[in-house]
Amino acid sequence: MPFPLNPPTPCFFYFSLTSILLIVSHLGYITGTAGDDNSTIIGAIIDSNSRKGKEEITAIKIAVDKFNNNSKNHKLSLVFRNFTGELCRAALTG
């Protein structure tokens, strides 16, 4: 392997969870496909400039596509924000 794979730290896990909950809690500010009652917006703050961030975005998109293809009654919509080291700025953009 050309680089070591380090497991994510608990701090990163809690940061990711907090970020997702923060975006999901502000659904009233987000417009898009969630205008009807049969869809849910999932938000994530991810560093899209890093390799890991790009892999996370791809994995989330694949999971949402699979869910939307198999679900007849409910759909998911994605919102991504780029994290550059300042959580408040990333959460408030958009």
How is this structure best described in words?
The chain has 94 residues and is α+β, with helices and mostly antiparallel strands. It has a domain at 41-94. 45% of the residues lie in helices and 17% in strands. The chain has helices at residues 10-25, 51-70, 87-92, and strands at 39-46, 75-82. Strands 1-2 form a two-stranded parallel ribbon. β1 (39-46), α2 (51-70) and β2 (75-82) form a beta-alpha-beta unit. The longest helix is centred in the middle third of the chain and has 20 residues, at 51-70. It is globular, with a radius of gyration of 15 Å. The N and C termini lie far apart (38 Å).
Secondary structure topology:
Layout lengths: L9 H16 L13 E8 L4 H20 L4 E8 L4 H6 L2
Parallel strand pairs: 1-2
Enumerate the spans where pLDDT stays under 50 for 5 or more consecutive residues.
none
**Structural class computed from helices and strand pairing:** alpha+beta
Q: How would a textbook summarize the main sheet?
A: 2 strands, parallel
- Average pLDDT confidence is 73
* 3D shape: globular
Helical content stands at: 40-55%
Enumerate the strands of the largest sheet in spatial order, edge to edge or round the barrel: 1-2
Number of strands: 2
The Rg value, from CA coordinates, equals 15 Å
**Element pattern in H and E:** HEHEH
Q: Given the structure, what is the number of helices?
A: 3
Distance between the termini: 38 Å
Beta-strand percentage? 15-25%
